[in-house]
């Protein structure tokens, strides 16, 4: 969800800036939730997943070379 907000928060339509608060209002959650998630360090699970993703890609690339 934060990626969507980050992508659109500075968007301008008809001279109006979307901003974090209006997007959160439409999506029906508090802007403080967005800011809390943005400031939180990555979880141990997401760090492990990122490391495994690199390893899995290496195995995949090694098995599917021509």
Topology (elements, then pairings):
Blueprint: H1 2-8, E1 12-13, E2 16-17, H2 20-27, H3 31-39, H4 44-63
Antiparallel strand pairs: 1-2
The number of distinct helices, counting runs of at least 4 residues, comes to 4
Biggest sheet details: 2 strands, antiparallel
Q: What is the N-to-C order of secondary-structure elements (H for helix, E for strand)?
A: HEEHHH
Q: Tell me the helix content.
A: 55-70%
What structural class is derived from the secondary structure elements? mainly alpha
- The average pLDDT value, as a whole number, equals 90
Overall strand count:
2
Strand % is 5-15%
Shape: elongated
Q: Span between N and C termini?
A: 38 Å
Give the C-alpha Rg.
18 Å
Classify the oligomer.
single chain
Q: Stretches where pLDDT falls below 50 for ≥5 residues? A: none
User: Numbering strands along the chain, what is their spatial order in the largest sheet?
Assistant: 1-2
Structure, described:
- With 66 residues, the protein is mainly alpha-helical.
- 67% of the residues lie in helices and 6% in strands.
- It has four helices and two strands.
- It has helices spanning 2-8, 20-27, 31-39, 44-63, and strands spanning 12-13, 16-17.
- Strands 1-2 form a two-stranded antiparallel ribbon.
Q: What are the salient characteristics of this protein?
A:
4 helices; mainly alpha; 66 residues; two-stranded antiparallel ribbon; 6% strand; single chain
């Amino acid at each position: 969800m934060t990626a969507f907000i980050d992508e659109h928060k500075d968007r301008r339509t008809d001279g109006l800036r979307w901003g974090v608060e209006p997007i959160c209002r439409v999506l029906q959650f508090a802007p403080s939730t967005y800011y809390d998630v943005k400031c939180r360090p990555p979880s141990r699970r997401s760090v492990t997943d990122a490391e495994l993703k690199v390893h899995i890609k290496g195995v995949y690339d090694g098995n599917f070379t021509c």
